Inverse folding.
């Protein structure tokens, strides 16, 4: 301990004290730099907090806006309204949609022979489908006020079918008459129509045709 306080050597004591002062100063500077590097300096958070802050009440509010994306715009352009109404081709014909004619294939036949009636349909406006059967179509042969023959008795004479009826395009079906009278149930063995003038008329869904005359000879 005495050697630290009283340096021993051939040099003057002041030289040794000067050297010791330099060593102590170097150690102090090194310690200061270590503390400065690893633990010193200002806290970045405190520095940021100490800076000027913006008052939130003065910040202008910006309303959010929504801009359609490219895919949404494309969807809007490509989407089309769904059609729920029936197209004319799928619409069922009613009596008011049609004009109907019953035309004898021959204007003169021999008594007891078969005569075909051509039942022709014309559309009044839009295209439609006519369901032909004995429930919708009736064909009648008259002589004055005398009922000679009718599909109400002989429904099998009407062939069940479906006709597409369009304006300007005629559609037709054929109904054969056996040249004889008819009765309920269309029983066979009925008498043949006598020579004379007869008329035929057709009715489809309450729409009547004009009468067409022919002769039995």
């Amino acid at each position: 301990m005495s050697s630290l306080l009283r340096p021993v050597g051939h040099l003057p004591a002041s030289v040794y004290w000067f050297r010791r002062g330099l060593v102590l100063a170097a150690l102090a500077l090194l310690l200061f730099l270590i503390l400065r590097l690893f633990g010193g300096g200002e806290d970045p958070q405190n520095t940021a907090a100490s800076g000027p802050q913006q008052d939130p009440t003065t910040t202008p509010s910006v309303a959010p806006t929504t801009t359609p994306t490219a895919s949404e715009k494309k969807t809007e352009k490509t989407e089309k309204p769904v059609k729920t109404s029936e197209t004319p081709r799928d619409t069922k014909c009613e009596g008011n949609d049609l004009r109907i004619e019953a035309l004898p294939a021959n204007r003169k036949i021999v008594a007891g022979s078969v005569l075909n009636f051509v039942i022709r349909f014309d559309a009044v406006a839009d295209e439609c489908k006519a369901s032909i059967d004995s429930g919708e179509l009736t064909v009648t042969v008259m002589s004055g006020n005398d009922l000679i023959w009718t599909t109400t008795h002989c429904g099998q004479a009407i062939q069940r079918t479906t006709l597409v009826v369009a304006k300007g395009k005629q559609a037709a079906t054929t109904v054969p008459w056996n040249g004889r009278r008819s009765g309920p149930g269309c029983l066979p063995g009925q008498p043949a129509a006598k020579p004379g003038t007869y008329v035929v008329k057709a009715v489809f869904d309450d729409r009547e045709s004009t009468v067409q005359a022919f002769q039995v000879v």
Helices lie at 2-5, 13-38, 44-50, 70-78.
